[in-house]
Design a protein that fits this description.
The chain has 6 helices and 9 strands. It has about 230 residues and is of the alpha+beta class.
Length: about 230
């Protein structure tokens, strides 16, 4: 069985000593690694994913790290050393921007008009072009209504939070056919501002909002290529 080195993250500060985490250093950076069988990476179990996430979170609670999502691996420590050298400017820029920050998440349903997107059980099927166009119009109007509500939620929360947040990342699923339509907002927040963030959200967020975090700032790791 072939082992690989799963990359948990990159940091500048000396990482805490743990039995499972191997450290490869170079260029003033430290790569945090976890040796794991390759087949476990290719076909990860739920338990393995939870364990990986816990390792990243435990490291993140101790020091600032640039977190890597599950699945980034190297086959040898020499490859990791070469990676630190080749991508040092990018790692430095990301760590400079994200150091001292956490990710906070808010998920809000926007399903007020979801019933309008589906024909009622007793609605007759469209038999003419006019009937079909009316059904499609109701469908698209419902989508527009939900898009508008998602934008309204995003804007009102961003206005309320003001300088409590550094950046925001938005994902919407207002056109989901099977899952409940939602807007998911990820906020980059300085560690010392987390309590302020929670206090504002308690007052400003819709009552059906779900808040999560603090997390490592996965959503704010920028792509190396523009």
């Amino acid at each position: 069985m072939t082992d690989v080195l799963a990359i948990l993250g990159i940091c500048r500060d000396a990482p805490p000593s743990t039995p499972e985490v191997r450290v490869v250093s170079g260029e003033g950076l430290h790569a945090l690694l976890w040796r794991v069988p390759l087949e476990h990476i290719q076909k990860p179990s739920r338990e393995l994913l939870i364990r990986y996430e816990k390792m990243v979170r435990d490291l993140f609670e101790a020091i600032d790290i640039l977190p890597f999502r599950f699945g980034t691996v190297a086959h040898a420590e020499e490859s990791v050393t070469a990676l630190l050298t080749a991508r040092k400017p990018w790692f430095d820029a990301q760590l400079e921007r994200l150091s001292g920050h956490v990710e906070m998440g808010i998920r809000v349903p926007v399903a007020d008009t979801v019933k309008a997107t589906q024909p009622a059980a007793n609605d007759p099927p469209a038999t003419t072009g006019r009937d079909f166009l009316k059904q499609r119009l109701r469908h698209y109007q419902a989508e527009l209504d939900r898009d508008q509500r998602a934008r309204s939620i995003q804007t009102s929360l961003q206005d309320a939070l003001g300088d409590v947040i550094s950046e925001v990342h938005v994902e919407t699923s207002t056109r989901a056919m099977f899952a409940a339509p939602t807007v998911s907002l990820s906020y980059l927040v300085r560690r010392e501002n987390v309590d302020r963030f929670l206090a504002v959200i308690a007052q400003a967020a819709p009552p059906d909002a779900t808040v999560s975090g603090p997390w490592p700032p996965y959503s704010f790791v920028q792509s190396e290529d523009p």
